[in-house]
């Protein structure tokens, strides 16, 4: 199964565009981990044509808040419909299991004993200052954390998060996470 873990950084925030629609934001870059090559890569907006074939051959897209944020934003640039590729949104799974949402930072600290390398506002400030490599490294770091959380959950059927000085457990049934689903994607790009 070819899995693509992804994360997006934007050039702006919702308060800049006056809506809560992710598709109204502008993509700065996207970082991915491709299980087929076991490698990390990133793509600026002008490089997206190199990303589409990778996504079109994926069996599953994995992210954190990806169904609500990353995929709707990325779909604005894609000439087809990325929602036709099976996806797993770890935050959605947590909300379904635990009853509420939480930050990636809380999960990384509680489950992996790691901290994020920055925050979304840092990435936007770096982008605006022309520090693309800082944004790229930050985004890839978030992809690494998301991938590690996914793998931990699959192996243990649980995750942990830090809150108020306490470590809390989330039981998650991952049985169906990697079941093959019917592919409905109509490839939109020539190969």
Low-confidence stretches: none
Estimated structural class: alpha/beta
Spatial arrangement of strands, main beta sheet: 3-2-1-4-5
Task: Give the overall shape, derived from the CA principal axes.
Answer: globular
Mind telling me the C-alpha Rg?
16 Å
Strand content: 15-25%
Write the layout of secondary structure elements.
Elements: E1 3-10, H1 14-17, E2 27-34, E3 39-44, H2 48-56, E4 60-63, H3 66-75, E5 87-89, H4 90-98, H5 104-112, H6 120-128, H7 132-156, E6 158-163, E7 166-171
Parallel strand pairs: 1-4, 4-5
Antiparallel strand pairs: 1-2, 2-3, 6-7
Question: Could you give a quick summary of the protein structure above?
Answer:
With 191 residues, this protein is of the alpha/beta class. The protein has helices spanning 14-17, 48-56, 66-75, 90-98, 104-112, 120-128, 132-156; strands at 3-10, 27-34, 39-44, 60-63, 87-89, 158-163, 166-171.
Question: Please, could you describe this protein's structure?
Answer:
The protein has 7 helices and 7 strands, in the order E-H-E-E-H-E-H-E-H-H-H-H-E-E. It is of the alpha/beta class. It has a single domain, classed as Nucleotidyltransferase, domain 5 (2-Layer Sandwich). A hairpin with a 4-residue loop joins strand 2 and strand 3. The mean pLDDT is 90.
């Amino acid at each position: 199964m070819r899995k693509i873990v992804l994360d997006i950084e934007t050039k702006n925030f919702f308060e800049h565009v006056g809506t809560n629609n992710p598709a109204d934001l502008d993509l700065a870059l996207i970082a991915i981990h491709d299980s087929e090559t076991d490698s990390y890569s990133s793509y600026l907006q002008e490089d997206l044509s190199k990303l589409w074939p990778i996504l079109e051959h994926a069996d599953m897209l994995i992210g954190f808040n990806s169904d609500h944020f990353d995929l709707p934003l990325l779909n604005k640039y894609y000439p087809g419909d990325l929602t036709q590729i099976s996806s797993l949104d770890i935050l959605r799974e947590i909300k379904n299991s635990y009853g509420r949402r939480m930050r990636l930072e809380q999960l990384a600290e509680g489950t992996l004993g790691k901290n994020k390398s920055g925050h979304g506002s840092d990435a936007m400030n770096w982008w605006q200052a022309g520090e693309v490599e800082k944004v790229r490294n930050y985004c890839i770091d978030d992809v690494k954390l998301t991938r590690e959380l996914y793998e931990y959950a699959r192996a243990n059927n649980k995750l942990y998060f830090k809150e108020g000085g306490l470590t809390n457990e989330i039981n998650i049934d991952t049985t169906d996470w990697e079941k093959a689903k019917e592919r409905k994607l109509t490839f939109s790009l020539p190969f």
